[in-house]
Structure prediction request, 116 residues.
Amino acid sequence: YEHGEGVEKDRGKVIHHMEEAAIGGHPNARYNLGCIEEDDYNIVRALKHWVIAATHGDDDSMKALMNAFKGGEVRKDVLAAALRAHKTAVDATKSTQRDTAEIYFRLNAEFVGNFN
Prediction:
């Protein structure tokens, strides 16, 4: 619905589906909702979305919060709390199996890239 590929563009449906995904725990959807709110000049709502997404380990949301802090839109204590929660979430997803899989996929992508 966002790009109108195969369907008519519909911003309302984009937001609806993003909200459903965010409620379901998808951090990137939460980040995207923050971006939509920022585009609509709803900075407070954008920041709330980004804080939630950052606490679930979303790097883009953490970057958005850092930029908002630099712009004076986020207090230092809020940023610090989000950063601690972000680190906790990221640390919780670390494992030897994930690291091995990441190396495998990176090497495979490089190998395939050499033939394209």
About this structure: Helices lie at 11-23, 27-39, 43-55, 59-70, 76-92, 96-113. The chain has a mean pLDDT of 90. The chain is about 75% helix and 0% strand. The first helix runs from residue 11 to 23.
